[in-house]
Design brief:
The complex is a heterodimer of chains A (171) and B (658). By secondary structure, chain A is α+β, with helices and mostly antiparallel strands. Helices cover 35% and strands 28% of the residues of chain A. Chain B is of the alpha+beta class and 658 residues long. Classes of the chains: A alpha+beta (171), B alpha+beta (658).
Chain lengths: 171, 658
């Protein structure tokens, strides 16, 4: 076997490895990523059924209801970006850092009845922390500009949401 | 006074760092013997300065000096002593200082143990280490000074993040950092070789022990981190494909590749350019891993909150180190000549395949980790890449790697015969198929394949030793004689490969785990996976800096008591944070795992898991690291020894001579 031929084989093996790596990545990227969506985006452009999305916003104060489903503990709460609110159902234990009026990111999909079924609820950090995506969604909906100081107190989020949200859902 | 001393020592370290970066390299270039000879002393001085700064910071933490900002933010008078000490590195400033300390330890180690390196190579290696370190020391001094004073000092500190108040996390960051930063040494060797324009077998022999040591620490560090996530985060999982976890996995993958390609350089003087590139790549990934996540550019559960100025500084440094070394590589790599040639089917060929597959896996992990960043910047889309992506990309690439892992060590150098290897491995393949068939009874496709792969790896590694000592083909005493004569490196290989098999079996076992979330009142019982879980009572308890709610759960199997678990919910008043303390009972074959959630009308929400083979995940990693350490103790790797002893070794015991 000539030197050239050996080199060719090694190069082919490299190409095969990297080729399959990029092929697999592209294939998985087209199906396995979860897009971030704010409550208003979710209502305006609902994702396809069963498609996993990350829904982020603030938990509406006073909206958390602890229920149970098939004997398992569950919770429903509303997530808002100030312009719209979505009802989220979650079966399982809410994380330690989950609090009303604070930022939350949930991973799940839209149920046929328009509510959001979360498979995972991520709440992180302390009370001053705001998930980056949530901060941007709030900024986009015009309710809080992060450049102009801290977010408005949690209690006010209720009054900002409920009327708009019902209008949106109703319309 | 003590913090000022630490601050001064840090400033001194920066000054020495500049000297370390410039003088030895200048000396090696101009052949100034005095400057070359000064290199070790400078490196040791650097270590003393940073060590002093470190001791001062630890001291401030231990004595609760709340006039120091980092102590006030991360300490509290009630925190137990051990967490006051570990709290030193439980925050951004302290962890950067730890990073600098570890790289200075590496420099000092090269200075002390590198006595038999050519003096100009040693000077260059120390110089490159200094140049890499000085930027980050400057960063520590200017942008994240751990000794900043606070006036007036608060009465008490804000306490360490309760999640970090845990013995597992006490040793996890230092381990991980020694691993990350340890790859700076092969990197420095690679840059030094590019500067010298020369790489030979001796270079490979010097690089390998350093790589091996860093790899062992990184393996342990990753395993500890995953173990901590398993029991402390209380989510029942052990690996979440979080950017922080990926950041440690990426250098591990390329570091493993480097470990293997350095063997080829050492034995056959081939793959030199590639090995140099891998050394540069591994350290670059370590750097970007540590700092991209820290800078808050990548979204992560673990990221410290921080400000953009720091991110920019770090990005600049990363660009400088990575870009600079790649430029140097592009300019100087053609100088490195390759001599050894080999057939595609040979030990070298097997190691090349290992490198290709490991780098491909690393490439998909990088893609998955960085894609959200690019999608945000270029397409303006916010998305996240989660476990489904990694599961469906990494596994198909890992399977051929596992298949090749048992075959590779059976091949001879230069030119090998696959039929030969097949004759030695047929029983291993048969056993793997049987294990797969048995597993298929319970498990889905992927776990079945993983169980078969685990059996293939563990038995294949054993087969290698069996083959070498000619067990059953000659009298037992002769086999034992051969076993004693085997170089430690072969045991290292066997253990490391088998360890991976154990880890894979553990991961596959975890996929068979069963779990339930239940609402129980005291006195009630639930059933899960053959066990009866009886909630005895719920009570309050007090800890040194927290109060806890404790559930007592008696677990029995068919009426026979197994264990009593007492999972807790802890509430830390200073940070106003609750944590869940999962409680785990293991018998090394399965874990019983209980988490206490919130309470409703006298009933407790409990999450219960039965995790088969879970402990194997971390045991396997420990076995891998142990294999690495045994290899490290091999006579071949004690630099300089081969020259004196090589001729004395009986032929056939040295794998390279076969």
């Amino acid at each position: 076997m000539t030197r050239k031929r050996r080199r060719l084989i090694v190069l082919l093996a490299c190409g095969l490895g990297l080729g399959s790596a990029s092929g697999l990545s592209l294939w998985a990227l087209s199906s396995d990523v979860a897009f971030f969506s704010s409550p208003s985006q979710l209502l305006h452009e609902p994702p396809g059924p069963g498609r996993t999305v990350r829904l982020g916003g603030l938990v509406v104060a006073g909206s958390v209801q602890r229920t149970s489903e098939d004997g398992k503990p569950a919770a429903t709460f509303r997530v808002t970006d100030g312009a719209a609110a979505v009802t989220v159902t979650f079966v399982g234990i809410l994380p330690d850092l989950f609090r009303e009026g604070q930022g939350v990111v949930t991973l799940g999909s839209l149920a046929p009845d328009g509510s959001f079924r979360a498979e995972e609820v991520l709440a992180k950090h302390d009370e001053t922390y705001m998930p980056k995506e949530v901060a941007e969604a709030l900024k986009k909906s015009g309710h809080w500009n992060p450049d102009k100081g801290p977010p408005p107190p949690a209690a006010t989020w209720n009054t900002m949401t409920v009327p708009t949200a019902t209008a949106k859902v109703g319309g | 006074m003590i913090p000022e001393l630490g601050h001064f020592a840090l400033a001194l370290a920066v000054a020495i760092g500049f000297a370390q970066a410039i003088l030895p390299i200048w000396g090696a270039w101009r052949r100034e013997q005095r400057l070359i000879a000064a290199a070790p002393a400078i490196a040791i001085g650097q270590f003393i300065a940073l060590g002093t700064a470190w001791v001062c910071l630890t001291w401030s933490n231990v004595v609760d000096d709340f006039s120091v900002l980092t102590v006030a933010e991360n300490g509290n008078s009630l925190t137990p002593l051990i967490y006051k000490i570990t709290g030193t590195w439980g925050n951004h400033e302290g962890s950067i200082l730890l990073w600098c300390l570890v790289i200075s330890i590496c420099g000092a180690a090269v200075a002390v143990f590198g006595g038999n390196l050519p003096s100009s190579l040693r000077a260059r290696v120390i110089g490159v280490l200094g140049a890499t370190a000085v930027g980050f020391q400057l960063f520590a001094l200017l942008e994240s000074d751990p000794f900043t004073r606070l006036w007036p000092p608060p009465e008490d500190g804000r306490d360490l993040n309760p999640l970090l108040q845990d013995p597992g996390l006490a040793i996890h960051p230092p381990m991980l950092y020694i691993g990350y930063v340890g790859f700076a040494v092969p990197f420095a060797f690679a840059i030094a070789a590019l500067l010298e324009g020369r790489i030979d077998a001796a270079w490979g022999r010097w690089v390998r022990p350093w790589t091996l040591a860093a790899w062992c620490f990184l393996t342990c560090g990753i395993a500890l981190g995953s173990w901590w996530a398993y029991y402390e985060l209380g989510w029942g999982g052990f690996w979440f494909w979080d950017p922080v976890e990926n950041a440690s996995l990426m250098p591990w993958l390329t570091g493993t590749a480097l470990l293997h390609s350095a063997i080829v350089v050492e034995k056959r003087e081939a793959l030199k350019t590639w090995t140099v590139l891998l050394a540069i790549g591994t350290f670059s990934l370590s750097l970007s891993g540590t700092f991209l996540v820290r800078s808050g550019i990548l979204n992560s559960v673990h990221a410290f909150a921080n400000d953009p100025a720091r991110g920019l500084f770090i990005l600049g440094l990363l660009g400088l180190v990575i870009g600079g070394s790649l430029l140097l590589f592009a300019a100087r790599a053609p100088v490195l000549s390759t001599s050894g040639i080999f057939a595609p089917v040979s030990r070298e060929g097997g190691l090349v395949l290992n490198n290709i597959l490991l780098c491909s896996i690393c490439a998909v992990v990088i893609t998955g980790t960085m894609y959200p960043l690019f999608a945000d910047l270029l397409l303006g889309e916010k998305l996240s890449v989660g476990p489904p992506f990694f599961n469906s990309t990494v596994f198909p690439l890992a399977l051929p790697l596992f298949a090749a892992m048992a075959v590779g060590p059976m091949l001879s150098w230069k030119r090998a015969n696959l039929g030969d290897a097949a004759r030695r491995l047929w029983w291993v393949a048969l056993a793997a198929v049987i294990v797969g068939c048995v597993a298929a009874y319970w498990a889905r496709l992927l776990p079945t394949l993983a169980f078969a792969a685990a059996a293939w790896l563990i038995l294949g590694a054993t087969a290698d030793i069996v083959e070498r000592i000619k067990l059953f083909r000659q009298p037992l005493s002769a086999s034992l004689q051969r076993l004693r004569g085997l170089p430690r490196g072969s045991f290292g290989t066997t253990l490391a490969h088998a360890g991976l098999g154990v880890t894979i079996a553990g991961i596959a076992g975890m996929s068979l785990a069963s779990s339930a979330i239940v609402l129980l009142k005291p006195g009630e019982t639930t059933h899960l996976d053959g066990y009866d879980w009886h909630l005895v009572d719920l009570h309050d308890a007090a800890g040194p800096n927290y109060s806890a709610r404790v559930a007592t759960i008696e677990i029995s199997e068919g009426g026979v008591p197994v264990v009593t678990l007492a999972p807790e919910r802890r509430s830390f008043p200073v940070q106003q944070v609750n944590t869940t303390e999962a409680k785990i009972h293991t018998n090394l074959v399965r874990d019983l795992y209980a988490v206490l959630g919130e309470e409703r009308d006298g009933a407790a929400v409990l999450r219960l898991h039965v995790n088969p083979l879970a402990p194997w995940i971390w045991l396997g990693a420990l076995v891998m690291a142990l294999g690495g350490m045994i290899s490290l103790a091999d006579r071949r790797l004690r630099v300089g020894a081969p020259a004196r002893r090589g001729a004395v070794l009986p032929a056939g015991t040295e794998p390279g001579l076969r």
